[in-house]
Design a protein that fits this description.
The structure is a single chain. The chain has 2 domains: about 80 residues; about 260 residues, Alpha/Beta hydrolase fold, catalytic domain (Rossmann fold, 3-Layer(aba) Sandwich). About 25% of the residues lie in helices and about 30% in strands. Helix 6 packs antiparallel against helix 7.
């Protein structure tokens, strides 16, 4: 949050469904939206004159600088940093949709179709799941979705219960119940797209990082619908998370106590409980210096899948932290290239390049 120049109010960013817009509130007033709802603002600053500079992104471009007056008027785009690069690329269209989950709850999702999409063809599909789970996808630039769409996949992603931006009740609906209703929500979004008739049901992949990696390993262990999966920095074992990660008290809040008091609850929300049932090929990507979800979470899944006679490839990166946010660019590129090759081999049936 930032004070207005005259200290009469505070500016702040607030998620609203798939958007992240700029708001202002004074001490005795209701919050007021400064910019239109259809914004994904990732950063902003307020000058002494009251003018606002902000960074905005859309599914069509990664991010550019805009300026506006203190009340949001006279908005003007002042940069177009990626114009030259994007002009040489095929940016696939991103479509927002709403669907109903198993209990009638509305789920917000997106799909990215290949640039040369034809409704008369059948395409392989990749479901991607966000981290958190108390986070959310936004209607913003999503590079991995663009890469996969340009490889000929329909990419589907959604905000299941637990996601932020849809109200407190929706967010807290996943507390202590990972892998339950939320797993059905992400599949409901995938099924919504499949019912439109242009997806090959035999060619489904799933991927995600952190909680998205949790969901990837959970779905591979509890369903047989996916031909392959890619799990990055996956949280797979809740007791291990409690004893080795950097936030054990959060697990107690989620599950009502420590593991020695709530062992069944911890095992109930652990993909490792079902890892021995994984038969689809799985690619595990993890950094050795990940403190949020230690690399042992991928090790246990890898050993289990290999021991039961199925295909698992485990790539250990020497650095990168959680989610590879602090990794060297070559590691970030390597994870994406391996993902493309993995799905190409096991979902599309194509041999990996290189």
């Amino acid at each position: 949050m930032r004070w207005s120049p005259d200290s009469s109010g505070v500016y702040f960013l607030c998620q609203d469904e798939g958007f992240n817009s700029l708001w202002r509130v004074a001490a005795k007033d209701e919050p007021q939206r400064i910019l239109p709802r259809e914004r994904v603002v990732t950063a902003y600053s307020v000058s002494e004159s009251g003018r606002i500079a902000l960074l905005n992104t859309t599914p069509e471009y990664p991010g550019d600088l805009f300026v506006c007056d203190a009340d949001g008027r006279n908005e003007k785009r002042v940069t177009n940093e990626n114009r030259a690069v994007l002009s040489r690329l095929c940016v696939a269209p991103t479509e927002s949709f709403w669907c109903r989950s198993f209990d009638g709850r509305r789920i917000h999702g997106w799909m990215v179709k290949p640039p040369s999409f034809s409704p008369r063809r059948k395409y392989p599909v990749v479901l991607t799941v966000h981290g958190g789970p108390y986070s959310a996808y936004l209607q913003a630039w999503k590079f991995d979705a663009q890469v996969l769409a340009n490889q000929g996949y329909v990419v589907v992603y959604s905000n299941p219960r637990g996601s932020t931006g849809y109200g407190k009740e929706f967010q807290t609906a996943a507390v202590g119940k990972w892998g339950q209703e939320d797993a059905r929500d992400v599949q409901a979004a995938l099924d919504h797209v499949i019912r439109q008739g242009f997806v090959d049901r035999k060619k489904q992949g799933v991927m995600g990082g952190s909680y998205g990696g949790f969901m990837t390993t959970w779905l591979l262990g509890t369903t047989k619908r996916f031909a392959a999966g890619v799990a990055s920095c996956a949280a797979t074992d809740e007791p291990m998370f409690y004893f080795s990660a950097d936030m054990p008290l959060w697990s107690e809040q989620e599950l009502g106590g420590p593991p020695w008091e709530k062992w069944n609850a911890y095992r109930r929300v652990s993909p490792t409980t079902h890892a021995h049932k994984i038969t689809a090929p799985i690619l595990l990507l993890h950094a050795e210096d990940d403190l949020r979800v230690p690399i042992s979470h991928s090790e246990i899944v890898h050993v289990t899948v290999k021991r039961t006679g199925h295909e698992s490839v485990f790539v250990r990166y020497p650095s990168g932290g959680h989610g590879f946010g602090g990794s060297a660019p070559r590691f970030t590129c390597d994870t994406l290239n391996r993902t493309v090759d993995w799905f190409g081999k096991h979902v599309k049936g194509r041999k990996p390049s290189g």
